[in-house]
């Protein structure tokens, strides 16, 4: 079966992971005062505030806030890991909201890597059938995965290994959207999470990081998503990644294949 096996943990575990104080990081240099208006604001349409901070190749850090059109779905791309999630770093477990560009984060493939970019936003309420956010209960994806309840956005993917992914997709390791498991009693859809910030992390290349013990991907919208975006959404995305100088091909190759919802559904049905 491709569906992750949930096991009861016999390991002694505190209700919440012990956090280490954040390590040193470059001082952020704010750019401007108020959030930069986007096309949605100018047209009087609903907009979502996204906060981003990044470091350039010289290690100089800056930050800004950008208003993006609510209908663009950018919040679904950015809003991956909920506030309070412990991330494995060189300093131990650090809450995702305390991470800054330049801090060293543990990755599966390349060990400790410096963060290049971080972003956060709140998710707009979802009017359609898909949930605005999900709660992954402790041990839902395996023992100590996650080590505590983990709030995630609807585009959150986790690393899945096995023979079934190889048979279906030609790779023993894939990044599967956890939303495809939303019918599981241990993965609970939430209609809205208006007061909870969700975060995304980005490195010089696509990486697998650990959120509450769950191997998940760093920010990469995916080539298919970028190719099918409306021009306004592409413009909004480019404004959020200034260190890429507007080049959306600079996200680079994927660390593992990203499955879409229908592909994950077929996998979990095996």
Structure description:
- The chain is α+β, with helices and mostly antiparallel strands and 270 residues long.
- It has a single domain (30-268), classed as Endonuclease - Pi-scei, Chain A, domain 1.
- Helices cover 15% and strands 29% of the residues.
- It has a six-stranded mixed β-sheet with strand order 1-3-2-9-15-4. Strands 11-10-14 form a three-stranded antiparallel β-sheet, with no helix packed on it.
- A hairpin with a 3-residue loop joins strand 7 and strand 8.
- Mean pLDDT is 85; it is low at 7-17 and 25-34.
Number of helical segments with 4 or more residues: 6
Helix content: 10-25%
Radius of gyration: 18 Å
Shape annotation: globular
CATH structural class: Mainly Beta
Mean pLDDT: 85
From the 3D coordinates, which CATH architecture would you assign?
Beta Complex
Describe the main β-sheet briefly. Answer: 6 strands, mixed
- The name of the CATH topology is Endonuclease - Pi-scei, Chain A, domain 1
DSSP E strands, number: 17
H/E element sequence: EHEEHEEEEEEEEEHEEEEEHHH
Explain briefly what this protein structure is:
The chain is an alpha+beta fold. The chain is built from six helices and 17 strands. The chain has one domain: Beta Complex (Endonuclease - Pi-scei, Chain A, domain 1), CATH 2.170.16.
């Amino acid at each position: 079966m491709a569906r992750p096996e949930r096991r009861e943990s016999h390991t002694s575990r505190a209700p919440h992971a012990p956090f280490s104080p954040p390590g040193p990081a470059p001082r952020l240099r704010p750019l401007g005062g108020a959030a930069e208006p986007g096309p949605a604001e100018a047209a009087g349409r609903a907009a979502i505030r996204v906060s981003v901070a990044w470091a350039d190749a010289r290690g100089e850090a800056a930050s800004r806030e950008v208003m993006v059109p609510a209908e663009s779905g950018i919040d679904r791309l950015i809003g991956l890991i909920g506030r309070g999630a412990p991330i494995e770093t060189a300093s131990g477990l650090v809450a995702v909201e305390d991470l800054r560009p330049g801090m060293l984060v543990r990755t599966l493939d390349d060990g400790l890597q410096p963060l290049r970019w971080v972003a956060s936003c709140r998710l707009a309420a979802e009017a359609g059938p898909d949930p605005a956010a999900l709660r992954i209960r402790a041990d839902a994806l395996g023992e100590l995965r996650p080590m505590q309840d983990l709030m995630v956005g609807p585009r959150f993917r986790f690393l899945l290994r096995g023979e079934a992914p190889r048979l279906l997709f030609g790779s023993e390791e894939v990044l599967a959207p956890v939303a495809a498991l939303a019918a599981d009693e241990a993965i609970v859809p939430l209609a809205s999470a208006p007061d909870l910030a969700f975060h995304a992390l980005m490195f010089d290349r696509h990486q697998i990081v650990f959120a509450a013990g769950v191997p998940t991907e760093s920010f990469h919208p995916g080539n298919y998503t970028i190719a099918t975006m409306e021009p306004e959404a592409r413009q909004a995305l480019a404004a959020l990644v200034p260190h890429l100088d507007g080049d959306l091909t600079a996200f680079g190759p994927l660390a593992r294949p990203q499955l879409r919802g229908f592909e994950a559904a077929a996998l979990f049905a095996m």
